[in-house]
Amino acid sequence: MRPTVSFKTIGCRLNQAETATLATRFTVAGYEVIPFGAPSDVAVIHGCAITGKAEHSSLYAARQARRIRADSLVILAGCPAETLGEALRGDSTVDLAVGQGGKFSLPELLHQLHPARFPAPPPATGPSPTPQFDTQRALIKVQDGCDFRCAYCIVPTARGLPHSRPLAEIHDEVARVTDAGFREVILTGANLGRYEDGSRRLADLIRDIETIPGIGRIRLSSLEITTAEQAVIDLMATSRKLCHFLHIPLQSGDDGILASMGRRYNTASYRKVIEYAVGRIPTLGLGTDIIVGFPGEDDASFANTVKLVRELPFSNLHVFPYSRRSGTRADTMPGQIPEAVKKERLHTLVEIGEAKRRLFAERFIGKTVSILVERVDSKGVGHGWTGEYVEGRVTSPGLQPRQIVPLAVTQATAGIVQ
Length: 418
What we know:
Helix content is 34%, strand content 22%. It has twelve helices and 20 strands. The chain has a six-stranded mixed beta sheet, covered by helices on one side. It is globular, with a radius of gyration of 22 Å. The N and C termini lie far apart (48 Å). The chain has three domains: 4-113, Methylthiotransferase, N-terminal domain (Rossmann fold); 138-362, tm_1862 like domain (pyruvate-formate lyase- activating enzyme); 368-417. The longest helix has 24 residues, at 339-362. By secondary structure, the chain is α/β, with parallel strands linked by helices. Helix 11 links the parallel strand 13 and strand 14 (316-321).
């Protein structure tokens, strides 16, 4: 009987992409991948450490795995293994903590540690196997690491300096997932705009992927301003396959707070990029991240953020209360904001974001959009997302997940086009 392994992924799309690769490596090594929550021989918590709360969630998942099966080998992998370090010693919940450098060799490591219990992976031959995704869109890791060192961020400590995968290697992986039936790929990285392979940058990578037969849509995860935004915008304006959606973190609409955060732009330069993008692509979907309650954010600073968010054409807001994170500069800054104030400011921006999301969806009434079907319900209705990242419902005979189908929009209710 094959040993079983389950995975719990906490955090970003980059983590999700890496979990797919981990699952594939365990399968090749002779394991059966089962859902997290079922008793398994090995439980891998692929955790997150971007905030103290995320780190706590990772440890909670490890405790959950231990309760499910007492003799399961519980592994904490990824960022929390890097940031917690010595704090994990003596914690009986976690049997093994493996950081970024070792997590992709877990099957080999388990065999070395427990040769009678876990199989030896076969020698690597031929092309790499296709990652095992549990979504209808394939997440492709193209880059890792960051050296921006924003005051609130632990990523440089957890993931190291920027480094990228070779373009040819990415091309081969995208070709394999396309052959496996995926029609949309999402390019992801810790700092996606820092992708480089020799003289080739992110826009060159996108152009290369566009040539792969069968690829329907290419979507980008978060893109930091001051990296590759203009080249990507110019390409997006003419591309038939690059989704018309950009997620560009703002974090604050106040110049003083941006400077305190260590961000590499001010509100004027951010506004200039957004106006340029919307000028090139009028129906551009635009997402952003905003942190409320950063140390020193007084009422006037927050009012500046509200004003900028109202003025810019965002269609999707991700709003987070600032969470203190040991090991970052912001953790020891004066002017920490009370939780009640953070909660109130969060509520204000969430309401604005919901209104903007609904208004953006209404812009597509009378237009035809494309929907990537992610699931088909019992009534035969396909549920998915447009290229502009608007949720949609479509009815058509014989719908199947992963299909990209046209939708003539006649209504938009609560931000969902139909």
